[in-house]
Amino acid sequence: xxxxxxxxxxxxxxxxxxxxxxxxxxxxxxxxxxxxxxxxxxxxxxxxxxxxxxxxxxxxxxxxxxxxxxxxxxxxxxxxxxxxxxxxxxxxxxxxxxxxxxxxxxxxxxxxxxxxxxxxxxxxxxxxxxxxxxxxxxxxxxxxxxxxxxxxxxxxxxxxxxxxxxxxxxxxxxxxxxxxxxxxxxxxxxxxxxxxxxxxxxxxxxxxxxxxxxxxxxxxxxxxxxxxxxxxxxxxxxxxxxxxxxxxxxxxxxxxxxxxxxxxxxxxxxxxxxxxxxxxxxxxxxxxxxxxxxxxxxxxxxxxxxxxxxxxxxxxxxxxxxxxxxxxxxxxxxxxxxxxxxxxxxxxxxxxxxxxxxxxxxxxxxxxxxxxxxxxxxxxxxxxxxxxxxxxxxxxxxxxxxxxxxxxxxxxxxxxxxxxxxxxxxxxxxxxxxxxxxxxxxxxxxxxxxxxxxxxxxxxxxxxxxxxxxxxxxxxxx
Length: 478
Prior knowledge:
Blueprint: H1 2-23, H2 34-37, H3 49-60, H4 64-72, H5 78-103, H6 110-118, H7 120-152, H8 159-175, H9 182-206, H10 226-233, H11 242-251, H12 260-286, H13 289-348, H14 355-372, H15 377-405, H16 414-433, H17 442-469
């Protein structure tokens, strides 16, 4: 339990101390934000800071910090370290930088930002890659709530019926102005997500459960190596490329640059607190990682969440778990499809103020999502997890190049280059080793992944030296 308390304290200090250091990379000022300069009543809508924070939290969270943390907890309490330091040094930096860079480019998507900083070829790769990730995300967050709802309703309301109902809701949430459904419902669902975490934390502390102390021992029942599997499994609770598609949504809505740390860095730290609670609760409730692993295999992620909440908090906990496991993934799924619409609209220069244009993009996207729901959830999750971390790697390199080219920034670009290098090694090593990838042995995959990451870091150093020697600094912090 001492380790868990220390982990919470470090997350708080990370926000208060390291968050302020990262904020200085942007040097927030009083410029007018896109929420006012491009206000259209649909996607660019000024939003109060507290509401923007809760919408951002729901956009990036869903059940990601719950499902991912529970699966990551199968490796043992070593997962606490990744959640804490991954979030402070990587995930929160990632979310803040992309959100603020997007804000300074009129709310541009991660794909468009990649074109500005990494070139036109990368822009097209990122367009395709980010849309595929968003489709996978939206689909993943249709099937899990639909499966749980089908278990709680009459037989005629089976999983397929609920998939249709959820997709119908997605049509509305994707088409309507952001302040009509998302802006009104998300603060409520955000409160539910936080309340769930508080309840599980209280149940863990006061329910007589034992939370193991942090150790570096790998306790995964199947012997999966911590590197790189744990770093991909726990995505949303530590660092997630999906967030790079979501931060630009709130970059269109924040009313001042000076609230960026609260909205972007703060939401990621809050998500990590939630992940930490569920990772600790999962191990404590089942006693050993083997019990948690077996429960996940037998009942699925949604079933395990229900069992833990009901077991720790009784009937009220079960109801809360149902609401959370149903509402939270849906809130990430709808914004995934919304982000995909905005990315495609940028590609084809389609004005999104017109409902007709929004429908032309939205309906085919949701049709593809409906087809993808027929694929096994576990297969979808594995590909989602890898593509998620690969996008995080790319986003961090975009932020690094932004810092290098913004020569007036006084904070070293190492704050983004180091986590970018780390995620480069994670992403390549995982796809080389995973059975859904190339299935290469770790003896071969490890050195390839490390060398690949080091080559990227060398490229970063060379670019930094070239820009330092240039006669006139190039400033893009307009």
